[in-house]
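Q: I'm writing up a methods section and want to include an example of the input and output format. Could you take the sequence below and give the corresponding predicted structure tokens, formatted cleanly so I can copy it straight into the document?
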Amino acid sequence: MTLNDRSIEPVLGATPADAHDPQFAARAVREMFTSIAPRYDLLNHVLSFNVDRLWWRRAARTFTHILRRPDAKILDLCCGTGDMTFALNRRAGASKPRILGADFSHAMLQRASAKDTKSHLRWLEADALNLPCRDEQFDLVTAAFGFRNLADYDAGLREIVRVLRPGGECGILDFGVPQGLLGAVYRIYFRRVLPALGTLISGVKGPYAYLPASVERFPDPEAMLARMRGAGFRDATWTPYTFAIAGLYRGKK
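A: Here is the clean output for your methods example:
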């Protein structure tokens, strides 16, 4: 299959069990994340063995050249309880650019706001596919482990392009699937151990059965980069983190 063929694979976006259309899928994803919001941070750290903290910091460090500009405007999409948003803010240091965290789960944003005791970041309850933001408003748009859950990946990329200023940058941090022997071991953990642990700790089964399926459904790096270029990004790249368990997609408008 050629790269061009891969770029038009019929993969719309996240599809939880029994989701028959994008609207139902989006609602199901929102309900899933709302159900695990009380234990979300604990589960992320336990299930990733705390490596997720390194991934957020590394991704934020990549955009230091933007974050250290006092006039910069940054949007962190699908921010959940704000871990990536806070990582961006810490990396910005004394520059204090305007950083906005957005998510469509009210319960997640409540927890993000409760954690925000000193930085006074701004939080917005919004759908990443229909942002209440002006065209060409942001210098940087990020999404950490949330873009994969959108009901339509191509529409999500187009919306990011819309709100970015010319020359603005995008950073999408999300899971991948390692290859080789490590990949085989990882898939056993991801498909069997992680869902069981997640269900045990959260008391909710659905989200952690959905997680492995959502990662396997997500386009591979080559296909994702083709989608980014098709949406209007140039210089699209992918940098693997921790043996490709995760990775950062970058692009410029």
